[in-house]
Design goal:
The protein is mainly alpha-helical. The protein is built from five helices and no strands. The chain is elongated. The two termini are 33 Å apart.
């Protein structure tokens, strides 16, 4: 595993997500009136609902991006302290295929499956 390439990949993904959050923040900072370009009194309830739904979707996307950044930061920390590639739960090595698909994975596939089943 090329640690420098991995670090670069994680930083690039972090930067992309941070840019996404900045754009979402800019969109979300507009009032409902500004985003619909009309007075709320001039709108049909369905139009207001559509704008509200769009805002909720943006908030969810922003929340997901922030969670992904936290995972990336955790992976970068693990790279620094030498624990990268080991499951946070059981301590076993996380498979190379899993890390290739999700370089910020903190659980091995078995522990991840158990976690998802318990939800």
């Amino acid at each position: 595993m090329d640690r420098e390439a991995l670090k670069r990949q994680l930083f690039e993904e972090r930067e992309r997500l941070q840019h996404e959050i900045t754009e979402l923040d800019a969109e979300l900072s507009e009032s409902l009136e500004d985003s619909s370009e009309e007075s709320p009194y001039d709108q049909h309830m369905a139009e207001t609902a559509a704008v509200t739904l769009d805002r909720e979707i943006d908030l969810t996307l922003e929340e997901n991006a922030r969670a992904a950044i936290a995972q990336i930061d955790r992976a970068l920390q693990k790279l620094e302290d030498g624990s990268y590639g080991h499951c946070d739960k059981c301590g076993k090595e996380i498979g190379g295929e899993r890390l290739s698909a999700a370089p910020f994975a903190s659980l091995c596939i078995d522990c991840k499956r158990l976690e998802e089943r318990s939800r």
